[in-house]
Design goal:
The protein has 239 residues and is of the alpha/beta class. The strands form two sheets. It has a six-stranded mixed beta sheet, with helices on both faces. Strands 2-1-4-5 form a four-stranded antiparallel beta sheet, with helices on one face. Helix 3 runs parallel beside helix 6. The protein binds adenosine-5'-triphosphate (ATP). This is Amino acid ABC transporter ATPase.
């Protein structure tokens, strides 16, 4: 089933056309990735799906419901969650408080507790410092916390905006392992990345944006072997 269906999306910031007639479908249960260079419009696309940016044209449907005119809060209630670029955790709050914030809409406190404890089991560094300020965490740990917090909202669609940006190779690996695990546990993922090789490795389908337009889309395995993508994004061609 198609979970997210974006069609004919146009977004302008004054005279800049950030998205032009962009279409994208994400099927329930898959990892879809959006690739492209700086300024291609990737963040704008995610922010428009979330409702933080109003499109000038286009339709967005989520789980068969038209959501184009819904507010951010209404979309979050539908199950759409965004982890923005730069993580945006509350650095003046403790790790535990950040996680509880992610679960603030839920009333099943015991299950929330169990999910937080599972996260601590997976990331002992977060557990050891649960009552310390999130500001004290490394960039990689902050990203894990940001994703953990987002998952506590029980999203149906988790959107991640360049989660690997600025992380050490070790954390990049752990991050992509976490993304795969979250997906295997049933959450659909829309992943924006500049780490093209890693994103194509975990994704089922991909869309390539250039200057606000879709220049290519298809299943990830086919795109990985496409000469244009190899040359322009995977560094296997002539420069
Ligand atoms: N709030 C804004 N006001 C004006 N122009 C903007 C705004 N946000 C983005 N833009 C412009 O829209 C275009 C697309 O930007 P966007 O951030 O969506 O691209 P991106 O692919 O996510 O790039 P990056 O990886 O650098 O975040 C760029 O030309 C950018 O300068």
């Amino acid at each position: 089933m198609t979970l997210l269906d974006v069609s004919g999306l146009c977004v302008r910031y004054g005279r800049i056309e950030a998205l032009h007639d962009v279409g994208l479908q994400v099927r329930e249960g898959e990892i879809a990735t959006v690739l492209g260079a700086n300024g291609a419009g990737k963040s704008t696309l995610l922010r428009t799906v979330l409702g933080a940016v109003r499109p000038d044209a286009g339709e967005i449907t989520f789980a068969q419901q038209a959501i184009t005119t819904l507010s951010i809060m209404q979309r979050v209630a539908c199950g759409i969650v965004l982890v923005p670029e730069g993580r945006r955790i509350a650095i003046s709050m403790t790790i535990e408080e950040n996680l509880l914030l992610g679960a603030h809409r839920r009333s099943d406190r015991q299950v929330v507790r169990m999910e937080i404890d599972n996260l601590y089991d997976r990331f002992p560094n977060l557990a050891a410092r649960r009552h310390g300020l999130a500001a004290g965490l490394s960039g990689g740990e902050q990203q894990m916390l940001a994703i953990g917090r987002a998952m506590l909202a029980r999203p149906r669609l988790l959107m991640l905006d360049e989660p690997s940006l600025g992380l050490s190779p070790l954390f990049v690996q752990r991050l992509f392992d976490l993304i795969v695990e979250i997906n295997r546990n049933g959450t659909t993922i829309l992943l924006v990345e500049q780490n093209t090789a890693q994103a194509l490795r975990v994704a089922t389908c991909a869309t390539v944006l250039e200057l606000g337009r879709v220049v290519m889309s298809g299943d990830a395995a086919t795109l990985t072997n496409h000469p244009y993508l190899q040359a322009a994004y995977l560094g296997h061609g002539q420069t």
